[in-house]
Design goal:
heterodimer; A: about 750 residues; alpha+beta; Aldehyde Oxidoreductase, domain 4; 19 helices; 32 strands; about 25% helix; about 25% strand; globular; B: about 160 residues; Ubiquitin-like (UB roll); DNA polymerase, domain 1; 2 domains; five-stranded mixed β-sheet; 5 helices; 5 strands; about 15% strand
Chain lengths: ~750, ~160
């Protein structure tokens, strides 16, 4: 797809202002939290105080009798619905059935005329529990005789998207396992010149999308309509077809602007519950979670990784082995896929001949874990990139030079059976090193680090689109890709405007309504620019082909005598714009031409992954040895994006992801004390603020047009997170000689480690 | 109870209950949904509005506190002719938002800053804005937008 040269672009590869700019700066942008339907009622949720307990009885009569209450929903009265859903494993009841598996699990919901009435009725629901022993960590959950969260096996979700068998419910708390092996690891470690080995921890993190989960459902003779803050409306639709036993055509998901996702709004969350409320109450129902409730809905998998890596006498990495325990919480959600992705991503962006990775995703009585920006990769890159630095130090090499010598090369099949590497890591690393003045020794108390990662990204390639060219040459794009802030609704029309040669302003995006927009599997895994971008490019070209045939008919010439020019066609002296072709073809200044495209796992997309999402980040930190406080002083991001359709948006994704990674590196962590989450509020869960911002920031994009997306584009937006936590740990070592293998590197942890050193 | 106040320059009267917050009254009763609610504990700044010119978290301010006072929300920022305020334009020009959920609060906090301190330094911007959280941008483009808006406002004043 990279026939076009970079300099030829008119609209693509330019930092066109965001399409949603005026709406978002004036307060007119509509999010689901802003939507109000006629006769809408409001739901509130009663949550379990216990981490693990049998539900002995629920008496909701008093609550139901309160004035203004329309319905109380419990698992007792949902006959007719299929209560269990899950795109990977159907283990998740839309409301607790017979037992609760984590503190905060929905047990009942009240639907009332307003939120306050619903909230006040919750305390009139009488639930009797019989508490069970809870398991809170993978270690506890895998102990012999540990209490089981799930006693039965489950059906696999139809859209699991991972290759492994469902392991959930087979008599242990293992939710899923994933194993990867090539070469002979034991033999390689036996002949290694040097080996490093260690145990690393990446915490439970909360994505904190500032708009908490929200959905509105309406159930009528036409089926179920839901407005939701979901990233993947089509996958939510699939789950709802099973809950309501309805055909696909009768479930409609509408997603307006979404107030942040970062993976946390991937897949089905509260939609089955709110739809069941609407079904029971027989009126539209809105369920708006608070941030505290959102924190009890989804988090990242935390991961404990044992890893060892070996080099030969020439400084070439010859083997890596890891065993990873991921804490998936009470329900599978997307963790089976996170488990598989973490396994693949543990290899890192390196060419390693002997690999063995064994990953276990384990059920515990904690908040369900699911996708979190770059899923799986951040968790294991913490271990992998720490270990690269440790190994370089051990053999007396500069960590940057050591990386240069070992990273996968362009076109190399560094991961067996996968797409050959489509990035240029050497170039990326060099840019990061230059940005940090790598050869310059930092001042006392400062340390530097450069890290990199690559992910098998793009998820499953199934995407379709329609573009409608109207008789005035304006265009409507029907796209299922949601606008989470990443800028998809700017990038997609840029591609169409470029292809059709029409002004960007004349291209409108109609988005994310499953009743109208064609199927798009998901908006995640950094896939939209590559897959939806490619789809709208192909649909534009298909529309052009049709209009060329129409022009040939109008001009009474053969199609091959027609040349496509910007905004229309030419044949000798004759020129026709798209508008003239359509109007003359139909005999009225109206009508349209419809271009379509279907992307599937074939052709350019037959070999996984869709692309390797690749990036480098570099930091210089300062360490206050008195207090243990680390500050990131300087940050460099290098996104290996093939071609940036909109460079400002691509850079914005990189720095946003890097900042999130910095947060986990320095202070973000959900903390459990016993079965209770103790920092489940933004008062207590610390995220980066203005004052944490590095004072020197350099953002770079590497554009070699080496992706399978439009004009050689590849996705970005997750990768700059991955190497940030390890960068901070490596830079701390560089500054102080102290190695910490558990993030976040809070002042207390750093201070204690510095004390121990002395 | 009846609540009278000046909202975006217009005298406004609305029925509300004593326990309602300003954010609830603005969003649910007056359909001004530009003011966003996120943390509900006054730490994220998404709901920032100006009361008599000073930034306030509408999520935790009881509505009756604004009786007979002047409230400015993001909906009231554009010029009478509908053109964008220089702060709004600067946020667009500098790509200073992504999802946009923090943006109304961020813009109102910026308004309060620049009204008080028309030429803030980087340190002053960071100090003043530290009560507004953004999860998307890493803050860097927001600081650029604030500086751009400040310069633009100065330039317009000079004319």
């Amino acid at each position: 797809m990279s026939a076009e040269k970079k300099r030829d672009f008119q609209i693509v590869n330019h930092s066109v202002p965001r399409r949603d700019g005026p709406a978002k700066v004036t307060g007119k942008a509509v999010y689901v939290s802003d939507v109000k339907l006629p006769a809408m009622a409001y739901a509130k949720v009663l949550r379990s105080p216990y981490a693990h307990a049998k539900i002995v009885s629920i008496d909701s009569a008093k609550a139901a009798a309160r004035p203004g209450v329309y319905a109380v929903l419990t698992s007792n009265d949902l006959t007719g619905l299929n209560l269990y859903y899950g795109h990977a494993v159907k283990d998740h009841p839309l409301i607790a059935v017979d037992k609760v598996r984590y503190a905060g699990e929905p047990v009942a919901a009240v639907v009332a005329q307003d939120e306050r009435t619903a909230f006040e009725a919750l305390e009139f629901i009488d639930v009797k529990y019989d508490e069970l022993k809870a398991v809170l960590t993978p270690k506890e959950a895998l102990d012999k005789g540990a209490a089981l969260l799930h006693e039965r096996t489950f059906e696999a979700g139809a859209l699991r998207g991972f290759e492994g068998e469902v392991a959930a419910g087979r008599g242990s708390n293992i939710c899923q396992e994933s194993h990867l092996k090539w070469g002979d690891v034991e033999a390689a470690f036996a002949r290694a010149a040097a080996v490093v080995e260690g145990e690393y921890y990446f915490p439970m993190a909360y994505a904190y999308a500032m708009e908490p989960y929200v959905a509105i459902a309406e159930v009528s003779d036409n089926g179920v309509t839901i407005y939701s803050s979901a990233q993947h409306p089509f996958m939510v639709r699939h789950d709802l077809t099973t809950v309501f036993k309805l055909p696909v055509s009768q479930i409609r998901l509408i997603v307006p602007f979404v107030g942040g996702g970062y993976g946390s709004k991937s897949y089905t969350k509260i939609e089955p519950l709110v739809a069941a409320c609407a079904w029971k109450a027989q009126r539209p129902v809105k369920l708006q979670l608070s941030v505290e409730e959102a924190m009890l809905t989804t988090r990242s998998d935390d991961a404990l990784t044992w890893m060892r890596t070996a080099v030969d006498a020439h400084g070439k990495i010859i083997a890596r082995q890891a065993r990873i325990y991921m804490n998936t919480g009470a329900y599978a959600e997307n963790s089976p896929l996170v488990c598989e992705k973490a396994t693949n991503r543990t290899v890192g962006p390196y060419s390693i001949p002997n690999v063995q990775i064994d990953t276990y995703s384990v059920y515990t009585n904690t908040v369900p874990a699911s996708s979190y920006r770059g899923f799986g990769c951040a968790q294991v890159t913490m271990a992998g990139e720490s270990q690269i630095d440790e190994l370089a130090t051990k053999i007396g090499k500069d960590p940057y030079e050591f990386r240069l010598a070992n990273v996968a090369k362009p076109g190399e099949e560094f991961f067996p059976k996968m797409r050959p590497f489509d990035g240029t890591l050497k170039q990326d690393l060099e840019i990061a090193a230059k940005a940090l003045d790598w050869q310059q020794t930092p001042p006392k108390g400062h340390g530097k680090s450069i890290g990199c990662s690559t992910s098998d990204a793009g998820a499953y390639p199934l995407t379709s689109t329609v573009i409608r060219v109207h008789a005035d040459s304006s265009v409507s794009i029907l796209t299922g890709s949601t606008e989470l802030g990443q800028g998809s609704h700017t990038v997609i029309p840029q591609i169409v405007a470029e292809e059709l040669g029409v002004p960007f302003e004349k291209v409108r995006v109609v988005a994310s309504d499953t009743a109208i927009t064609p199927y798009d599997r998901s908006t995640g895994a950094s896939r939209t620019t590559t897959l939806m971008g490619r789809a709208v490019l192909e649909a534009s070209r298909e529309a052009i082909e049709q209009m060329v045939r129409m022009a040939a008919e109008l001009l009474k010439i053969k199609t091959d005598a027609i040349e496509v020019v910007r905004g229309g066609v030419r044949c000798g002296e004759a020129r026709l714009t798209w508008s003239e072709i359509i109007s003359r073809y139909y005999g009225l200044p109206d009508g349209e031409v419809i271009g379509r495209a279907y992307i599937r796992k074939a052709g350019d997309f037959s070999k996984p992954p869709v692309f390797w999402e690749t990036a480098c980040t570099g930091v210089e930190i300062s360490v206050d040895e008195e207090t243990g406080l680390i500050r990131v002083e300087k940050l460099a991001t290098v996104g290996d994006v093939g071609l940036a359709i909109n460079p400002a948006l691509a850079e914005g994704q990189d720095i946003g992801a890097a900042t999130m990674g910095m947060g986990v590196g320095l202070f973000e962590e959900l903390v459990y004390e016993g079965p209770q989450l103790v920092n489940g509020s933004i008062l207590d869960y610390r995220v980066p603020r203005f004052s944490d911002m590095p004072r020197q920031v350099e953002m770079h994009l590497v554009e070699n047009q080496d992706g399978v997306g439009p004009y050689g584009a590849k996705g970005g937006g997750e990768a700059s997170l991955n190497s940030m936590p390890s960068n901070i740990a490596n830079a701390l070592y560089n500054a102080t000689g102290v190695r910490i293998r558990r993030v976040p590197l809070t002042p207390e942890k750093v201070w204690r480690a510095l004390k121990e050193r002395q | 109870m009846k609540l009278s106040f000046l909202l975006n320059g217009r005298p406004t009267e609305v029925d509300c209950e004593a326990q309602e917050t300003l954010a609830e009254v603005l969003r649910a009763r007056l359909d001004l949904t530009g003011t966003k609610v996120s943390c509900e504990v006054q730490v994220c700044g998404a709901c920032t509005v100006l009361v008599d010119g000073l930034p306030v978290s509408a999520c935790t301010l009881l509505a009756y506190e604004v009786r007979d006072r002047s409230v400015l929300t993001v909906e009231g920022l554009a010029r009478p002719d509908g053109s964008l305020h220089p702060i709004q334009q600067a946020f667009i020009d500098e790509f200073a938002f992504q999802c946009g959920f923090c943006t109304p609060g961020m813009i109102m906090a910026t308004k309060a800053l620049l009204d008080d301190n028309p030429k803030p330094t980087d340190d002053e911007i960071i100090h003043f804005m530290d009560g507004n959280i953004c999860r998307c941008t890493g803050y860097v483009p927001i600081v650029r937008a604030i500086k751009r808006a400040a310069a633009q406002i100065q330039q317009e004043k000079g004319k």
